[in-house]
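Review form for a predicted model. The reviewer records the input and the model, then writes brief findings.
Reviewer: anonymous (R2)
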Amino acid sequence: MNSVLISVIVINIVISLLLSLGSAPILVWMERRVAGFIQDRLGPNRCNIGGVRLGGLIQSFADMLKLVFKEDYRPNSIKEKMFFTMAPMIVFATAYLTYMVIPFADDLTIGNQTFMMQGLPFDLGILWFLAFAGLSVYGIILGGWASNNKYSLLGGIRAAAQMVSYEAAMGLSLISILIVYGSVHLGDMVRFQGELIFGFIPAWGVIIQPLAAILFIITSFAETNRAPFDIAEGESEIVGGFHTEYSAMRFGLFFVGEYVAMCAASALIVTLFFGGYQIPWLNTVALKEYFDFVIITIVVVLPIISFYFSKWIKKNNIWPQADDARNMEAKWLINILIGINVVLIALAVGYFVFGLSQNGLNICVAILQIITFFVKLYMMNFVFIWVRWTLPRFRYDQLQNLGWKILLPIALMNIFITAIVVVVLGV
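Model under review:
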C-alpha cells in the first residue's frame, strides 16, 4: 500500500469524522440559535474563553465537558447492566457508520490511481445506509427495556412501532429512485444528477422524483426520532422515554447519536435528491473545463459577501460597553475574514501566473466539491431544526395513520407510475 493511498484513506476518514461526529456541537449550537430566533430570543451567547464565544458555539463544548465529568448514576433497580451500557453505544455506532458510504466529492484521480471520496470505499451505497439505520432502533429498545422503568419501556416500544411503520415507506420510496438511477452506488447516483435535462435543468432527484423526495424526507424525520416524530422521548407524556434512566456520558452518547443520525440523514437526502457534491450546472467535467471562470467568480463574489457580513457583525455584535471582552471576538472575526480573502486572492494570482498540474487541478476540484457538499448538508440540517421548532408532536394514532394509510400507498403508487414511465420512454 503506497503513501498516496494511505494519505487519501486517512483524509477520507478525517473528513467523514468532521462532517458527522464533528458536526454534533455545531448542530447543537444551530438548534439553540434557530430555536432562539423562532421564539424571539437570543439563545446561548455568554459562555466564552477569554472573550471568544464563537457566536455561542463555546456553550456546546462546555455542555459536552459537563457530560464527560458528570456523575454516571445508574439506579439499583437495573438488572441487565450489560445491555443498559451497550444501548447508547449501539445507537451512536450505527448513526456514525451510516455516514461512512456518503460520497462528499467525485472520485479523485492522482496519477494512475482513482480513489473513492467517502469514509469506506464500498459500493453497497444505499443498502449499507438502510442496514445500519434499521439497526439503531435496537439500541433504543434495549435501553428502554434494560432500564427497568415503565416510561423507558414505553418509549422503546413506541420507537419500535415507529421504525416498523416508516421503514416500509422509506424503502418503497427508494425503489422508485433506484429504478431511475439504475444503481445502488451513491457515487453513480450523484454523477447521474450532474447531467442536465433539456440542456438547462439540473437532473437532481428532487426534480426527477419529487414525490419520492417528499416521502423520503418525511420518513427520515421518523427514522431519526426528530420532531414531530419524537414520541419515543415525549417528555410531556413519558418523562424522557427510552433514556429516562441515563445520565452523564451514557446519555451523552444518545444525545450525540441523535445529531449524528440527523447529519447522516441530511447527507443522504442531499446525495439522493439535491445533487450531492455537484455544483448546479457544473459537473466534474465542466468544473475542470471552466475552472478559470470559477476561480474568478470566487475572487469577485467572496470579498463582496465578506464586506456585507462584516457590516452585519459591526451592527449586531458590538456591545455597548467598550471594555466588554466579547467585542474582541467581532474584531478578530473581521480580521480573519480579511485574512481569508487576502490568501484566496494570492492563491488565485499564483494559479493564473504558474498554473496547475493535472493532479493539482483534480485536488482543487475535489476541494470545491467538498465545500459544496458541506454547504448543502448544513442547509438540510437547518430544515430538520426548523421543522422541530415549527410543528407540534404527532399523537401516536396520527403517526401510525400517516405511515400506513397515507405514505405507504403513495410510495406504492409512485413505484407503479415510475416503472410505467421508464418502460414507455425506454430509459
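Findings: The first strand starts at residue 108 and ends at 110.
Further findings: Strands lie at 108-110, 113-115, 196-197, 201-202.
Recommendation: see findings above.
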